Amino acid sequence: MKTIAVVSTAGGTGRTTLSAALAVLLARRGRQVVALDFDPQNMLGAHLGIDGFAPAGIAQALLDEAGAWHTHTWRNAEGVLFVPYGAVSLAHSARCDARLAAEPQWLANALAQLVLPRDGVVLIDTARYPSQQADQAVRCADLVLCVTPPEPAACATLVAQLDALRRDGANLRIIVNRLNPARDMQRDVLAMLAAALGNGLPLAQRVHLDVALPESFARGTWLFDDAPHSQASHDLHGLANWLDAWVAGTPATAARGHGERV
């Protein structure tokens, strides 16, 4: 199986929304997908169509309160097996962080319990990097997708953490999310980011802003079903195709698809 960690160095990047969309799109491509919420905000289930917030999950296993973590799993309508983080208080969150700090291989050992085919995918939505959750996910992942909007503050935090991400994530790709080509400032930020990344770390994909996305989430539907011909839908399918080829071991370029508007 392949493990993909989805991280961000700033809040509000759309990381969880993107994680859910990729999990569903990979499942539709015939992959067995496990979507693991490793963020104390416990929001991934809502994006995957699970009603309410799961009260128990991987955090309770960290707290030794509810046995094995894989006893708290759900499967959504798309066939994605979902592992929630679980509801935690501030004190419990601190205890989870302390255990992860004391056991740097905790997540890797937990994932080793999964039985998936070689072409199966574990997709981990993490807490904001740096954090204990993101650190463990990055170190045990085969591929790290770092999500950032093309905004000055978000890209500045990414550049500040770039050396640490490169060190811990051997296979790192940057995803620019919520791109609005009508804003000249975003073009300038993209040029700055590309210069900071250098030739050795190209942007894997750009996903355009789509104002219909919140409405799809509110209806419990997917943007790529509601607006299949939109640029954002095209971008998401392009990223899913790239990941699908990577999982299969097929050489795949980080192309942005045909007819993309930059």
Automatic annotation (TrEMBL):
<dbReference type="InterPro" id="IPR027417">
    <property type="entry name" value="P-loop_NTPase"/>
</dbReference>
<dbReference type="GO" id="GO:0005829">
    <property type="term" value="C:cytosol"/>
</dbReference>
<protein>
    <recommendedName>
        <fullName>Cellulose synthase operon protein YhjQ</fullName>
    </recommendedName>
</protein>
<dbReference type="InterPro" id="IPR017746">
    <property type="entry name" value="Cellulose_synthase_operon_BcsQ"/>
</dbReference>
<dbReference type="GO" id="GO:0009898">
    <property type="term" value="C:cytoplasmic side of plasma membrane"/>
</dbReference>
<dbReference type="Pfam" id="PF06564">
    <property type="entry name" value="CBP_BcsQ"/>
</dbReference>
<dbReference type="InterPro" id="IPR050625">
    <property type="entry name" value="ParA/MinD_ATPase"/>
</dbReference>
<dbReference type="GO" id="GO:0051782">
    <property type="term" value="P:negative regulation of cell division"/>
</dbReference>
<keyword id="KW-0547">Nucleotide-binding</keyword>
<dbReference type="GO" id="GO:0005524">
    <property type="term" value="F:ATP binding"/>
</dbReference>
<keyword id="KW-0067">ATP-binding</keyword>
<dbReference type="GO" id="GO:0016887">
    <property type="term" value="F:ATP hydrolysis activity"/>
</dbReference>
